[in-house]
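Troubleshooting log. The previous run stalled partway through. Resubmitting the same two chains, unchanged.
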Amino acid sequence: MSDIADRVKKIVVEHLGVEEDKVTETASFIDDLGADSLDTVELVMAFEEEFGIEIPDDAAETIQTFGDAVKFIQGATA
Amino acid sequence: MFDLTGKTALITGASGGIGGAVAAALHAAGASVALSGTREAPLRALAERLGERAHVVAANLSDPAAVDALPKQAAQAMGSVDILINNAGITRDNLFMRMSDDEWDQVIAVNLTSSFRLARGVLRGMMKARWGRIVSITSVVGTTGNPGQANYAAAKAGLVGLSKSLASEVASRGITVNCVAPGFIQTAMTDALTDEQKGRILTQIPAGRMGSPDDIAAAVLYLASPAAGYVTGATLHVNGGMAMI
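Second attempt completed without errors. Output:
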């Protein structure tokens, strides 16, 4: 697993208090990991800080799963 | 009883009577304070009087760029903003039929829009800290209405709706959002009234006197303190019984 995916997973596990093995590629933050809408805003804020990037609102809306987040951040930091 | 040791507070309109009293009360309870206002000289004088833990961050809240910069300036000065007091307010009174777009827009911009933007600016830090207090100073006229103050009353009532909505969004994060609604308080704003006007107002106040800025500051101090952690989305009316709502 890439370094980015590891860091994203760490944030998700810490923030949502879920087991690491639940955070799979297709795991939806809201449907599978128990996040509410405010949690998703906080996750995006945490990603922005961890990776020093800006995630605009329209992009944030497309980040529904762990895999979406990793893919977006890989693109933004490439 | 209300201990704010180690907390940091940004107070807008701190050069005014109520804002100055609020800043002094939070400071006396142990908070660091960032004093904001348009007139720098009275802010400096207040900061000097308070001594340590007092910072001046002047800003004109009718300037959107200044509003956006203010939370950052305050966080730079104090390390964080745990408490936001939206106190700054202006009046541009006029009978409704004569009220210009400009009079309407100015009052909404300073009294309502700047509070929205400042709250948005301080929320990120509060969310991370899992603790925050936002207290907006509204007015009894936001509930009762007042002839000549359609703009002011609309802005103050708007703050109530804003606060309740935000309160429900962030309650789970340890952040409370409340309002304090003063009645008639002795300040420069009410000094402009004639004796006859004041006399008429006093007949409507069961307490038989105008309030003092310290009466408001005590209410704000309570809502800003850890003691009020279970109070959110509320408006605390401080008006000597003038309107029991």
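Takeaways: The radius of gyration of chain A is 11 Å. The CA atoms of residues 29 and 35 of chain A lie 5 Å apart.
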